[in-house]
Design a protein that fits this description.
The protein is an alpha+beta fold. The chain folds into three domains: about 1-130, no CATH class; about 135-195, no CATH class; about 320-434, no CATH class. The chain contains eleven helices and 21 strands. It has helices at about 1-35, 40-55, 55-60, 70-85, 90-110, 110-115, 120-125, 135-155, 185-195, 230-240, 245; strands at about 165, 170, 175, 195-200, 210-220, 225, 250, 255-260, 265, 270-280, 290-305, 310-315, 320, 325-330, 330-340, 345-355, 355-360, 365-370, 370-380, 390-395, 425-430. Strands 4, 5, 10, 11, 12, 15, 16, 19, 20 and 21 form a ten-stranded antiparallel beta sheet that branches. Strands 14-13-17-18 form a four-stranded mixed beta sheet, with no helix packed on it. Strands 1-2-3 form a three-stranded antiparallel beta sheet, with helices on one face. It is flat. About 20% of the residues are buried.
Length: about 425
C-alpha cells in the first residue's frame, strides 16, 4: 500500500497544483469556447487528445521509463510564461503555458521517450487555444484583399463593370464588402482541427488497405454575400412590414409591384453545420484481380441564412431555393466499386441526392424526389505500349434517370447545379502519360 501511495503521490500533487494555478485559465478558456463560434470546436480537442494518448498505451507500456529533471526546468519555464501572461493581462500566454506545463510534466514523470510517443496528442492541444486578435487580424486582412481581388477578376472576366477599393467591391447599383468572415480563416481553423482518420492495422495486412475519415464542420460567416429570394422579400414587406424588404420592392404609381431587387448583398450571417464521412477499402491482390470500394457521404445538420438584423431567418436544410438554382439536401453521397487486373480496370459509381422541398415560386411545398445516378467506366492500358496510353470508355447516368421537376428553377425546369442534365452521356477518351 505504501508503495502505491509513493507512486501516486507525484500525480496527486501535480493535479492539485494544476487546479490551483490553472483553474481560472481553464474557466476563461471554456468561456471563450462558448462565446466565440470560431473556437466552439475546443470542447472536442481534449477528448480527442485523450483518445490519441490512449491509442498509444501499448507503446507507452513497452517503454523503460526514465524520468528527467529537465522536465522541471520546462515546468518552471511554463510557470514563468503563466506569470508573464497574468501580469501583462495576455490570455494567450497563460493558455500556451498550459501546453508547456503538460509537456514538462510528462518529461519529469515519464521521460523524453514518453514525450516523443505523446507528441501528437500534446501538440493537438494547441488547436483549442484562440489565436491572439493581433495575429488573427494580420492573417485575415490579407486574405480579405485576396478574396476581393479574385472576385474582381472573376467579375471582369464575365464582363461585369466593377471597381475595387481595398476589400470593397463596387458594382453599378450596390457595394459589397468582403468582410473578415469571407477571408476563409475561420473555416480554416475549424476544418484544420476536426478531422479524424482511422486506418486499422488488420486492414493493411497482405497488401490490403482500409481507412475511414469523419469531418464535422460548424461554420458561421458574418456579413455573408448572398441574395434573398424575391418571394421572401415580397412576403416580408407585404405581410410583416419589414422596412429593409420594402426598400427592395419597387412599385408603380398605382401600387403594383414593378420589380424586386434580388441582387447580391451583405447579409447578417450564414450558419452551417454538417458531417462528411469517407471510407475506402482495397483488397489484397488475387488471381481475379484487386477490388476496391470507396464511399463518401455528407449529412447537412443546419444551413440558416439571417438578414435584416435578424428579421429574416431562412432555414435551407432539405430545401430547393429556386432561381438562382441551389438545393440543400440533408444527405448526399457517392460510392464506387472498382476492379483492376493487369492492363484492365473498371469501375461502377452510384451517386445519391436526397429529396428536397421547393420553398419559392408558384408551387411552394412541392417535393422534388431523391435521385440515384449510375456511372460506368472501363479502362485499358496496354503493356505493349508501355502502359503510357490509356483507352477509356464510359457512360454517365447509365440508367437514364431524369432530374426531378422544379417549378421555381430557372431555365429548363430543373436545377442543373445539383442534378445531371436529362439523358444518358457516353464518352471515349485516349490519354497519354508522360
Amino acid at each position: 500500500m505504501a508503495h502505491l501511495f509513493r507512486r501516486a503521490a507525484p500525480f496527486v500533487l501535480l493535479a492539485a497544483s494544476f487546479l490551483l494555478l490553472y483553474g481560472g485559465v481553464v474557466r476563461h478558456l471554456v468561456h471563450d469556447w462558448i462565446r466565440d463560434e470560431n473556437y466552439s470546436h475546443g470542447f472536442l480537442i481534449i477528448p480527442l487528445a485523450l483518445y490519441f494518448a490512449w491509442e498509444r498505451r501499448t507503446r507507452l507500456a513497452a517503454l523503460s521509463l526514465a524520468p528527467s529533471n529537465i522536465g522541471l526546468i520546462i515546468v518552471f519555464g511554463s510557470l514563468g510564461v503563466l506569470l508573464a501572461g497574468v501580469l501583462g493581462a495576455e490570455l494567450f500566454l497563460t493558455r500556451v503555458s498550459l501546453i508547456g506545463l503538460t509537456a514538462g510534466s510528462i518529461v519529469f514523470l515519464l521521460g523524453w521517450q514518453a514525450l516523443r510517443v505523446l507528441a501528437f496528442p500534446v501538440a493537438l492541444l494547441l488547436l483549442m487555444i484562440p489565436i491572439p486578435a493581433l495575429i488573427f487580424n494580420q492573417i485575415a486582412f490579407p486574405l480579405q484583399l485576396l478574396a476581393s481581388q479574385v472576385g474582381e477578376t472573376a467579375l471582369r472576366t464575365l464582363g461585369v463593370p466593377v471597381l475595387r477599393e481595398g476589400n470593397v467591391i463596387v458594382l453599378a447599383n450596390t457595394s459589397l464588402e468582403v468582410a473578415e468572415a469571407c477571408s476563409g480563416i475561420r473555416s480554416l481553423i475549424s476544418l484544420l482541427t476536426l478531422g479524424i482518420v482511422y486506418s486499422p492495422a488488420w486492414a493493411r495486412s497482405n497488401g490490403g488497405n482500409f481507412n475511414a475519415e469523419i469531418n464535422y464542420y460548424d461554420i458561421k460567416v458574418t456579413n455573408a454575400i448572398a441574395a434573398i429570394d424575391p418571394q421572401v422579400t415580397l412576403n416580408n414587406c407585404a405581410l410583416l412590414g419589414d422596412a429593409a424588404s420594402c426598400a427592395l420592392t419597387v412599385r408603380t404609381s398605382n401600387g403594383f409591384v414593378n420589380e424586386i431587387d434580388g441582387t447580391l448583398d451583405n447579409l447578417d450571417s450564414i450558419r452551417t453545420k454538417g458531417l462528411d464521412i469517407t471510407a475506402n477499402y482495397r483488397t489484397p491482390a488475387t488471381s481475379a484481380g484487386r477490388f476496391g470500394v470507396t464511399v463518401n457521404a455528407t449529412h447537412l445538420f443546419k444551413y440558416v441564412l439571417t438578414a435584416s438584423n435578424g428579421f429574416v431567418v431562412l432555414d435551407r436544410k432539405g430545401t430547393e431555393r429556386g432561381s438562382p438554382d441551389q438545393a440543400f439536401p440533408e444527405w448526399k453521397g457517392n460510392a464506387t466499386l472498382d476492379w483492376s487486373l493487369s492492363d484492365f480496370a473498371a469501375s461502377f459509381t452510384g451517386r445519391y441526392i436526397d429529396s428536397v422541398i421547393e420553398t419559392s415560386g408558384t408551387n411552394v411545398g412541392h417535393k422534388m424526389g431523391s435521385r440515384f445516378y449510375s456511372d460506368f467506366q472501363f479502362i485499358w492500358t496496354p503493356s505493349m505500349l508501355e502502359q503510357r496510353f490509356a483507352f477509356t470508355l464510359g457512360v454517365n447516368n447509365l440508367f437514364d434517370k431524369d432530374p426531378p421537376a422544379c417549378w421555381s428553377c430557372s431555365g429548363a425546369n430543373y436545377d442543373p447545379g445539383t442534378y445531371d442534365a436529362p439523358g444518358r452521356f457516353g464518352y471515349a477518351r485516349i490519354s497519354y502519360h508522360m
